[in-house]
Amino acid sequence: MTGNTSGRPRRARVGVVWVLWACLAGSACGGDDGVQPVPQALVGTWVVQSLVVDGADLAQLGFGFSFRLDSDGRYTLAVENSQLIICELGSFCEDGGSFSVTDTQIVFDPDTSPKPFVYSVAGDVLTLTGIASNGSEVVFTLVRAPGSF
Question: What is the pTM of this model?
Answer without folding.
Answer: 0.71
